[in-house]
Specification:
single chain, 6-stranded mixed beta sheet, alpha+beta, 12 helices, PurM-like_N_sf, ligase
Length: 351
C-alpha cells in the first residue's frame, strides 16, 4: 500500500499548513472591525450591518491578476511586493465609481508550495490592503505540480466595495469644460510586461541585474516597482471636490481607459506636453523602436489614474492628492465634440 500518495504526486499538504501559519500575522494586520473570525474557514465573513447607515448602498466588485510581472519577481526571487500590484489592480478599479474597498480575497497557484515564498506574497497583499483601507478576508493557495514549475506561481484576486447610490461617479456626470486631472504613476504598474520583457530582455539583451544609469537603479529593481494604490486618495478627492468621473489607467493605455467613462455626447483632449513619462517608458520606446501610438495602447506612460472634475476645483484637487504623496496636474479638458473619444495631442518634453 502506498503511503503519502498525494505527496508522491507532488502536493505537500504539510507545506501548505506551514504557509498558512506564516501568513496569519500579515492577514491580521489588514483586519477591519467588520471582519469576523480568522483564516481557516471555508468562507470569509464581513459584518454588513454598517450598510444600515447608507440610504441605498451599492456593492461594487472587481477581479484581476498581476499578469507576467510575476515572472520578474520569480527571476529575482523577490516576492513581497507583487501583492501591491494585485491589490492596486483590484481596489483602484473599484474607486473610480466612488466605491470604498471593503475586503480582498486572493488566489495563489504554484507548482510547489514553499511556505516562506507564499508568506512573502501574502505579506505584500496584506500590507497593500492596509494602504488601501480594506481587509484581506480570505484566499486560496493551490499546488499544481506538473502544470506549473516548482518556482512558478500566479496570483489573482477579487475585491468588494460599497458606494452610496447618490454619490456614484460615472459618465453621466461628466460636463463640457471638465478638467482632465492626471495622477502620476509609480512606474509601469502591472500592465504591458509581455511587451516590456520582450523588448528589454530579449530584443535589447539587458540583464535584470544590470544598473541602468537613466533609471538610477538596476533594471530588475525598476521593473518590480509596485503599482501605486490610489484608493484612499481618490475617495478623499471625491469627497472634497466636484469630481464627476475617474479612470484607472491599466491595459489599453490612457486614451482607451478614459473613453470608458466618457459620455457619447462629449470627448476629451489630453496634451502630452504637460508631463514627461518616467525614463523606463522612453527606454522601452527606444530599445524596441516602438511607435508612440503602440506604446500608448499598451503602457500607462506615466499616468496611473485620471479624474474628470470641475475646473474650479483643480487647485483643491492637487492639494488633496499632494497630501497622499501623489503628484497631479491638469492634462486636458472635456469638449463638446460628440463621439466619446479621447485624443492625445502634442509631444512629451524631451521625446
Amino acid at each position: 500500500m502506498v503511503e503519502n500518495a498525494y505527496a508522491a504526486a507532488g502536493v505537500d499538504i504539510h507545506a501548505g499548513d506551514r504557509a498558512v501559519d506564516l501568513m496569519k500575522v500579515w492577514i491580521e494586520k489588514s483586519r477591519r472591525p467588520e471582519m469576523l473570525g480568522g483564516i481557516g474557514g471555508f468562507a470569509g465573513l464581513f459584518d454588513a450591518s454598517a450598510f444600515k447607515a447608507y440610504e441605498r448602498p451599492l456593492l461594487a466588485t472587481s477581479a484581476d491578476g498581476v499578469g507576467t510581472k510575476v515572472a520578474i519577481a520569480q527571476a529575482l526571487d523577490k516576492h513581497d511586493t507583487i501583492g501591491f500590484d494585485l491589490v492596486g489592480m483590484l481596489v483602484d478599479d473599484l474607486v473610480v465609481c466612488g466605491a470604498e474597498p471593503l475586503f480582498v480575497t486572493d488566489y495563489i497557484a504554484t507548482g510547489k508550495v514553499v511556505p516562506e515564498r507564499i508568506a512573502a506574497i501574502v505579506k505584500g497583499i496584506a500590507e497593500a490592503c492596509v494602504e488601501a483601507g480594506c481587509a484581506l478576508i480570505g484566499g486560496e493557495t493551490a499546488e499544481h505540480p506538473g502544470l506549473l514549475g516548482p518556482d512558478e506561481y500566479d496570483v489573482a484576486g477579487s475585491t468588494t466595495g460599497v458606494v452610496e447610490a447618490s454619490e456614484l461617479l460615472g459618465a453621466e456626470l461628466v460636463r463640457e469644460g471638465d478638467v482632465v486631472l492626471a495622477m502620476e504613476a509609480s512606474g509601469l504598474h502591472s500592465n504591458g510586461y509581455s511587451l516590456v520583457r520582450h523588448v528589454l530582455l530579449q530584443q535589447g539583451g539587458l540583464a535584470l541585474d544590470a544598473h541602468i544609469d537613466e533609471l538610477g537603479r538596476t533594471l530588475g529593481e525598476e521593473l518590480l516597482v509596485p503599482t501605486r494604490i490610489y484608493a484612499k486618495a481618490c475617495l478623499e478627492l471625491a469627497r472634497a471636490t466636484r469630481t464627476h468621473a475617474m479612470s484607472h489607467v491599466t491595459g489599453g493605455g490612457l486614451a482607451a481607459n478614459l473613453e470608458r467613462v466618457m459620455p457619447e455626447k462629449l470627448s476629451a483632449t489630453i496634451d502630452r506636453a504637460t508631463w514627461t513619462p518616467q525614463p523606463i517608458f522612453d527606454l522601452v520606446r527606444r530599445t524596441g523602436d516602438i511607435a508612440l501610438a503602440d506604446l500608448e495602447m499598451t503602457l500607462n506612460c506615466g499616468v496611473g489614474m485620471v479624474a474628470l472634475l470641475d475646473p474650479e476645483d483643480v487647485d483643491a484637487a492637487v492639494r488633496v492628492l499632494e497630501g497622499y504623496g501623489i503628484r497631479s496636474w491638469a492634462a486636458g479638458e472635456v469638449t463638446a465634440t460628440p463621439g466619446g473619444t479621447v485624443e492625445l495631442v502634442g509631444t512629451h518634453p524631451g521625446w
